[in-house]
Amino acid sequence: MHDTTTRERLRLLGASGGAIFAVLALVAFLIHAGPSSDEGVAVAEYYSANGTATLWAAALVGVAAMSFLWFAETFAERMGSRAVGVAGAAATVALYLVAVGCWEILAEIFGGVDLANVPSEGYSNAHVLDVVGNGAAHMGNFAAAAYVGATAAAMLASAAPWRRLGWLGIGITALRLISALIELASNSPWSDDVSIAGFLAFLAWVFAASVMLVVTLRRSTALVPQPAA
Predict the structure, then answer these.
(1) What is the pTM of this model?
(2) Which of 31, 43, 154, 196 is the most buried (most CB within 10 A)?
């Protein structure tokens, strides 16, 4: 009985990982606004003034990524397949961590640095790192759309409460995919707003799926007869 209780608690913790991920990722996003452009000088100026904040944001993303993967594994197990969405979750985390890793390196290099002492090649390096980070984040958006689509499809094949959330997931998959395409295809300022909307929708989806999974696991645990003492 003690082992069963421990497993159930760990499963609930894994189920709540999606909500933890969404909250931490949102906080990190608010902390790390990013430079106004990818020009080397602008990038160096931003990280010189916001190096510490960026490092904190990177740490939050690291914990968020771990929580998201645990949630994805728990969700797949609950749906009866170890493959449901796990590949999409892993790809999403990998690409987003590459992006955050680039920004974290920039914070370490330029944080608190007097820009008068930065050589011209330093600005070139800042530009390259920022572009690589942004590119990885852009590709991560497609992986995020794939994850939402896979989990939504699994929900549609499940019980009624899950099916309602599954239909919502289909809409969010389309939004995340369209926003990712617009971000790549357009340089207009409004494309950034569309991308942010897609990212926030993704976080909201993971949060909702996590809450639903926690509720479902709690109900199933309550229905299991407990052995007499």
Answers:
(1) 0.89
(2) 43
